[in-house]
Design brief:
The complex is a heterodimer of chains A (about 220) and B (about 325). Chain A is mostly helical and about 220 residues long. Chain A has helices spanning about 1-25, 45-70, 80-105, 110-115, 120-135, 140-145, 150-155, 155-170, 180-200, 205-215. Chain B is built from nine helices and twelve strands. Chain B is an alpha+beta fold. Chain B has one domain (about 1-305): Oxidoreductase, molybdopterin-binding domain (Sulfite Oxidase, Chain A, domain 2, Alpha-Beta Complex), CATH 3.90.420. Chain B starts with a helix and ends in a 23-residue tail after the last strand. The chains are: A mainly alpha (about 220), B alpha+beta (about 325). The interface between A and B is medium-sized, with 20 and 24 residues.
């Protein structure tokens, strides 16, 4: 059941890139001169924004798995977490390569200057770099090799990656902060949940004594 | 001193007061009727114009570039027009029902004759020219647009500004009902922009009312806008309802929003970066790789207006 669902989720996760590819290559994929026309006036801007948006969304979805699992007690949800996290990395990679290729034409000096000078690039790039060790250690072998505890500590880097993503977005918009702040609010809620669990590991105080008395 | 002031008011008497009242109504947007009353007297059904109407007898201009023109579809569907939306693809539909007639433009400030002009009487001031200009957005993209209009200086000469007028301020319509973006506070409304008098008088500065041989589409700033091709796009105010001649540098919308990012001059300059991103290159719509941005967007003839000015300081 979960296996079948996994296949379905995997395919769903590919839909955004599929839509982009369809728009980009259009009705005549062999005619290079028509490329991009299905994505409006500025196709590369659409690709950059879409891949960036989906990186952020997958980071948030990944971070939502644990709270969702604990609240609903649907423990099988955990089996989707790695795939969702890897899709965040996948869209982040596409996002980065769109920039490296179409914005910078792979000119290393320009790229390094940008990363050093433009704070929204610096923070966005950092957010991506933080995802690399997580993607690399996403295999069962790596978890065994590292030991669960250490693996878990390392994978808390995703918090910083997501925070970097929100700051990256806030710093690049001209004046309309609506979308980056939406991501920011969701991320804040997901992180606050973790803080709450850390402070009160046994759940809200009120319910615990009630449960005990009723059991007694 | 008090007596002298009272005398000043008497000399211009009733009309300025009614303009003032009218302007208020206009600004609140609550009484479109007020503007319509003014318009009705000047406007006759024969002058009704709308997007896609052809503009006849276009003159060619030596200012035009022969670069490949950006397709009409892109120019009219990719618009930074925050009065309608911060999403560039939305103004095309949101502005579809925008009313561009009747339309009056108030001329005030330091001029011999303050007046309200019907937009069609302004358009009739000089023969329409096609001016194919490069247009560079502060965001780093650019287009080539066959605008239609004539030099703003033609109108300014008719307005007879006083010698003390050193700047020109342009005000965009404020009407929340028609311009839904004005219900948000992404910028302060109404949008205003400004030019130094010599910039406004420069023959390249275009008073624009058309595009691709046709009446200007609403999403591109109909019925009347300016186009200042050597400055970033936001300097070119759209849907202008007022032109004021002023002594001091007027406040401008983007400069008010983020003073350290958007200067009053905002000349296209590849050597002065936006604080957050580089301005050295731009993406011409339709091209995949970025091309170099040119000083003054390639309009070198304006350079003499800024000789001796530190363009890093006056960005």
């Amino acid at each position: 059941m979960v296996r079948a669902l996994k296949v379905l989720v995997f395919v769903l996760c590919l839909v955004p890139v599929g839509i982009l590819a369809r728009g980009f290559f259009g009705a005549h994929p062999t005619d290079m001169s028509s490329w991009g026309q299905g994505l409006g006036a500025n196709p590369l801007e659409v690709i950059t924004h879409s891949t960036g948006d989906w990186t952020m969304r997958f980071l948030l979805i990944t971070l939502a798995i644990t709270p969702l699992r604990k609240i609903t007690h649907l423990n099988w949800l955990i089996r989707f977490r790695r795939m969702l996290g890897l899709f965040a990395f996948f869209y982040g990679t596409l996002h980065l390569f769109t920039y490296l290729w179409f914005d910078k034409n792979f000119v290393l000096a320009d790229i390094l200057a940008d990363v050093a000078k433009r704070r929204f690039i610096t923070v966005g790039f950092s957010g991506f770099v933080l995802m690399i060790p997580l993607a690399v250690t996403s295999t069962a072998w790596a978890i065994r090799k590292m030991g669960g505890k250490r693996w878990q500590v390392l994978h808390r880097l995703i918090y910083f990656s997501a925070i970097a993503g929100v700051i990256h977005y806030i710093w690049l918009v001209k004046s309309d902060l609506t979308k980056p702040l939406q991501y920011g609010v969701i991320l804040a809620a997901l992180l606050l949940y973790r803080v709450a669990v850390w402070v009160w590991p046994k759940g809200p105080r009120k319910t615990v004594p009630v449960a005990r008395t009723s059991a007694a | 001193m008090l007596i002298k002031k009272a005398a000043d008011i008497r000399s211009s008497e009733v009309t300025p007061k009614s303009w003032y009242m009218d302007r208020r109504k206009f600004l609140t947007g609550s009484a479109l009727a007020g503007a319509a009353v003014v318009g009705e007297q000047l406007w006759s059904p024969s002058t009704v114009v709308q997007a896609n109407d052809k503009i006849p007898n276009l003159q060619k201009s030596s200012f035009s570039t022969n670069e490949k023109q950006t397709p009409y579809k892109d120019i009219t569907n990719y618009n930074n027009y925050y009065e309608f939306s911060t999403d560039k693809y939305e103004p095309a539909s949101l502005a579809a029902k925008f009313k561009t007639r009747p339309w009056t433009v108030t001329i005030d400030g330091a001029v011999k004759k303050k007046q309200k002009l019907d937009v069609d009487s302004i358009i009739a001031l000089a023969p329409p020219e096609e001016r194919i200009y490069r247009h560079r957005c502060v965001e780093g993209w650019s287009i080539v647009v066959p605008w239609i209009g004539f030099s703003l200086s033609e109108l300014i000469k008719k307005c007879d500004p006083l010698p003390k007028a050193r700047f020109v301020e342009f005000t965009t319509l404020f009407d929340m009902a028609q311009m839904p973006g004005q219900q948000t506070s992404v910028l302060r409304w109404p949008y205003t922009e400004g030019l130094r008098m010599d910039e406004a008088m420069h023959p390249l500065t275009l008073l624009c009312f058309g595009l691709y041989g046709e009446v200007l589409p609403n999403q591109n700033g109909a019925p009347l806008r300016i186009v200042v091709p050597w400055k970033y796009g936001f300097k070119s105010a759209k849907a202008i309802v007022k032109i004021s001649f002023v002594e001091n540098q007027p406040p401008t919308a983007w400069n008010d929003a983020t003073p350290r990012e958007y200067g009053f001059y905002s000349n296209v300059n590849p050597h002065v970066d936006h604080p957050r991103w580089s301005q050295a290159k731009e993406r011409r719509l339709g091209e995949f790789l970025k091309r170099d941005t040119l000083m003054f967007n390639g309009y070198d003839q304006v350079a003499s207006m800024y000789s001796g000015m530190d363009l890093k300081k006056y960005f």
